[in-house]
Amino acid sequence: MALGDLAGGEEDQTFTDAVGPLVPAAQRLAYGMLQNPHECEDAVQEATLKAWRSFPRLREESNLRAWFLKIVANECRQRRRNRWWSVIKFASHEEAPPAASVDDETAIDLRQMIGNLPSEMRLAIVLRYYLDLPFDEVGRVLGVSGAAAKARVHRALVRLRVDVPEVRPDA
Amino acid sequence: MREDEFRGRLRIALGEPPQLGSPVLLYPRAARPGFLVHGMALIATTLAILLIVVLVGSRLTLQPRGKVLPASTPSSVTQPAPDSLPCHLAVNLIQEAVNAGQESVTSSSMGFVNIPSGTFQVDPGARVTDLPSGTTSGPNVYSAPLQRWLPATSRALSPDQRSYAYVRLLPAGATLSDATGGELHVVDAATRTDRMLWSKSGDIELVDWSSAGILAASVPLQGGVRLLWRINPATGTTTQAPASDDPMFDTPHPYSGVNNYIYLGTDASGRSVFRLGSRDVGTKYYVVVVDAAHQATTIYSGTAGDPTGLDPSGIFSDAHGLWFGNIDGLAVWLWTPAAGLKRFTVSGGPHAPVGYQFVSSTFLPSGACVPGQFQGVAASPVPPATSPAPPTPLPAVDWSPLLARPLQLPNVAPGAACPVSPQVSLKIRTPPGTKGGIGHGYGQGPVYVSGQITWYSGQQGLMVVTDPAYSGPVLVRIKRLDGTGAAALGGSPGSPVDSLPGGAIGIRQTATPPYWGQWFGSLNPSVPGCYGIQFDGTTVSDYAVIKVQRGMPASG
């Protein structure tokens, strides 16, 4: 059963028409944040339901995509927070240095480093580089200005030890 | 690095989202805000009533056979929660006994370990022969919803525990030595309905059954590329899955000094559980849980042989947490995020059988811990050995002439391609009454190395098979060809060897014409790489080259 199958009224149809096209972006955001297809589906499902509930309160001038992605992002944050294993600390052991010459291991390293970022930084990175949003829209999802969003992306990149000149504060 | 370059790297790292289901609206129109509170209250009330009915029903009916005693603090009003104690944990007791030079004798019993007392009792009513099952046998799993044992492992059990999958080799009656293909079947255990879901010309290995469907691997019967498939259990629709979906290979970033691992299983949430590190006494090891984002959580870190004694043999997760068996058969463990690791010493295991040189027993968690205590019957050991005396020792061999022969292994530059020996098909003839032979090997003959298709760093089985054209002693030596690193060769209780200088081993007797020789031992490369294995006999000299990868999945 797809979005809207149970939505019968005019308002529900409006919701379906408005949010339906945003679902792929929502799924991409959730997958980028959670990296788990099942959790991703659950998060988007729950976010869609929450969006449906609050849809009548949405002001006309609001940016619909930013509004919906913000709900999805909150749901993902909540799910990451609720993971029972996320509160368990690693035992004190050293990790082996990455084999930088092997592409897939480099990718695994980057994925792990992104996974270890604080949620807000990870969200900024995913919105900017996985969803290709401009900084202004990244800011709307994060609830900050475009400049602040850029600064947050920069801080995340520094944490990842990646230097991207376009995102430097002086760029 | 430019933004575009980082974007590309990030997308490789995170991967593209798989095909995902569209969200649905779960609530009827009336549940919109304004009606929602009332609607939710109605739903909650209905669920509460249903829950009570289910709990009462399960209390009355969902119990294993044998006598289940009530929990120590019964209440006429409240029913035990699925995670309450006391409970009885479904386990398979596996006991193995062997004498040198003989095939091992294995006994498997289904029963329960009462928690927290740790007493083990066999379930006298346990039987699985009334349900269809595959060619290979293994531990059985207990379905709490169906209150019965099923002829499948926990990995083949459906998420609702009401169905299971099995693989049937083709043609009917075939073994791995002579099969031409396989079929994946799904059985609805409640209705005993057996459906053929998928067939393949090669062997099918059942990897896992989760909410995402059945994950199976197809492997050419003579070895080759192993492909993963995701199968819809309802429709049989099959799509190829990426290798990264295999929970056995969902390993965390390598830990310092750890090159091998054992896959223990997957929990109910789809997280893979591994033991990282060797089991050699004094070496560091970790037990970790890896989530879908490849994040590892360390459940335990210790030193093999330390006083804690955790040596996991298998897992099962339920509402209590994650249950572990222990290889020494002395305990089961429960791990929860809040309380950590808790040991329950097990009593009531079988006495050691008579007439064997080597005996081992272990309890494999095979189902949920069901509220209440279980009272069944005492466990029986495997039957006494029919011929307690070990076979006559083979005459000693003077290995010095063979040891004096130089290694003739190829040189491989670091980073260069490993000249892996091609796999050859073997038609192995074994004595009547034995379990048959393996169908492939590496080398030019008459001596071949076999036992694995893919080799890993860490302890794994190794076979040396010998054509009946040669029946003399064989010296086996191994060396890494593309760098430094050791690889230990070892025998097994049923296949003793002479340990020789330089890590070489000597197999005194190989083939017994007209039958092939099959020697079962172990190989433990310390690091991945390209390795050469040289065989020297009185009239033969040959070698095989294998490529060793990082890690080690559990067998089976």
Structure, explained:
The complex is a heterodimer of chains A (171) and B (556). Chain A has 171 residues and is mostly helical. Chain A folds into two domains: 1-85, Rna Polymerase Sigma Factor, Chain: A (Orthogonal Bundle); 99-171, Winged helix-like DNA-binding domain superfamily/Winged helix DNA-binding domain (Arc Repressor Mutant, subunit A, Orthogonal Bundle), CATH 1.10.10. Chain A is 62% helix and 0% strand. Chain A contains eight helices and no strands. Chain A has helices spanning 10-19, 23-34, 37-54, 64-82, 103-115, 119-130, 135-142, 146-159. Chain A starts with 9 loop residues before the first helix and ends in a 12-residue tail after the last helix. Mean pLDDT of chain A is 74; it is low at 1-8 and 82-103. By secondary structure, chain B is mainly beta. Chain B has two domains: 55-252 and 311-375, no CATH class; 400-549, Immunoglobulin-like (Sandwich). Helices cover 8% and strands 38% of the residues of chain B. Chain B contains three helices and 35 strands. Chain B has helices spanning 3-14, 36-61, 400-403, and strands spanning 67-69, 87-98, 105-115, 120-122, 141-143, 148-150, 163-170, 181-188, 193-200, 203-210, 213-219, 227-231, 238-241, 261-266, 272-276, 284-290, 296-303, 312-317, 322-326, 331-336, 340-345, 358-371, 373-375, 423-425, 440-442, 447-450, 455-456, 460-466, 474-480, 487-490, 498-499, 505-507, 517-525, 529-537, 541-549. A six-stranded mixed beta sheet of chain B has the order 27-35-34-29-32-31, with no helix packed on it. The longest helix of chain B is centred in the first third of the chain and has 26 residues, at 36-61. Chains A and B meet through helix 2, helix 3, helix 5 and helix 6 of A and helix 1, strand 16 and strand 17 of B.
CATH classification class of the largest domain in chain A: Mainly Alpha
Low-confidence stretches of chain A: 1-8, 82-103
- CA-CA gap between termini of chain B: 45 Å
What structural class should be given to the helix and strand makeup of chain B?
A: mainly beta
The residue-averaged pLDDT of chain A reads 74
- The shape of chain A, in one word, is globular
Known CATH architecture of the largest domain in chain A: Orthogonal Bundle
Beta fraction of the residues of chain A?
under 5%
User: What can be said about the biggest beta sheet of chain B?
Assistant: 6 strands, mixed
The domain count of chain B comes to 2
Shape of chain B: globular
Helix content of chain A: 55-70%
CATH topology name of the largest domain in chain A: Rna Polymerase Sigma Factor, Chain: A
Q: What is the straight-line distance between the termini of chain A?
A: 48 Å
Total helical segments of chain A = 8
Q: Please, how many domains of chain A?
A: 2
Total DSSP helices of chain B = 3
- Report the order of strands and helices of chain A: HHHHHHHH
